[in-house]
Design a protein that fits this description.
The chain is an alpha/beta fold. 41% of the residues lie in helices and 20% in strands. The protein contains 6 helices and 7 strands. The strands form 2 sheets. A 5-stranded parallel sheet has the order 2-5-1-6-7, covered by helices on one side. A two-stranded antiparallel sheet has the order 3-4. Strand 3 and strand 4 form a beta hairpin.
Length: 216
């Protein structure tokens, strides 16, 4: 479906370590601004389908760039930004480590919030962003958040979560995610609960929305 949006959607990329507060920040912005003007796209929705691996899919390194279908994400973003088309994106099943049978529609809104761990490591994605944000969050806090999330929400075993963090998550952060912070326009400390940063972003987003409204 094509929407009557008279100007280019403004894309804000939010990256950082797992548990750094990316989703918190995006959700706060959405709650403050409203879903009529803001949409959220999560990089996690574009995990590749490893269901053919059976029980071994839990052993996949999901923090490596090769585990994501960034080509599909780039295609969807271009359709939203350039063609003003709605796209149907996958919904990932974290408990079973595979895409679910369900999907959701994302419309071309005035602002697109794109959040994920490896967004800034991909040049094609960076080129589609108007603002690039990196969440600078203490690693101890990231680990605690991940443990709570994965054990409570995703029914993961505590020992599995810790081993995955040590063997894969931390290693991939050092290799891919941390080096990508150099591409950020804004570094946000505080784990997603930085009111100063949030107020600055809200001010910028409202200015973008108002500018677009006045130009119509």
């Amino acid at each position: 479906m094509q929407r009557d949006l008279q100007y280019k959607p403004f894309v804000i990329g939010i990256s950082g370590a797992s548990g750094s507060g990316k989703t918190v920040l995006a959700s706060q912005i959405l709650e403050e601004i409203g879903s009529d003007d803001v949409s959220i796209i999560c990089e996690d929705s574009y995990y590749k389908d490893f269901s053919n691996l059976g029980d071994k899919r839990a052993e996949v390194n999901y923090d490596h760039p090769d585990s994501f279908n960034h080509d599909l994400l780039v295609d969807h973003l271009k359709r939203i930004i350039q063609l003003r088309e709605s796209v149907r994106i996958p919904i990932y099943d974290y408990r079973n480590h595979c895409p679910s049978a369900e999907s959701r529609i994302v419309n071309p809104t005035k602002v697109i919030l794109l959040e994920g761990i490896l967004l800034l490591a991909d040049e094609k994605l960076r080129e589609l962003m108007d603002i690039k944000i990196f969440m600078d969050t203490d690693f101890d806090l990231c680990l605690l958040r991940r443990v709570l999330r994965d054990t409570r929400e995703r029914q993961r075993d505590l020992e599995f979560v810790i081993h995955q963090y040590i063997d894969k998550v931390r290693v991939m952060y050092n290799k891919f995610i941390e080096p990508s912070r150099q591409y950020a326009d804004i570094h946000v400390p505080g784990g997603g609960y930085n009111n100063v940063a949030l107020d600055m972003l809200k001010t910028k987003i409202r200015a973008v929305i108002n500018e677009g409204t006045q130009s119509n």
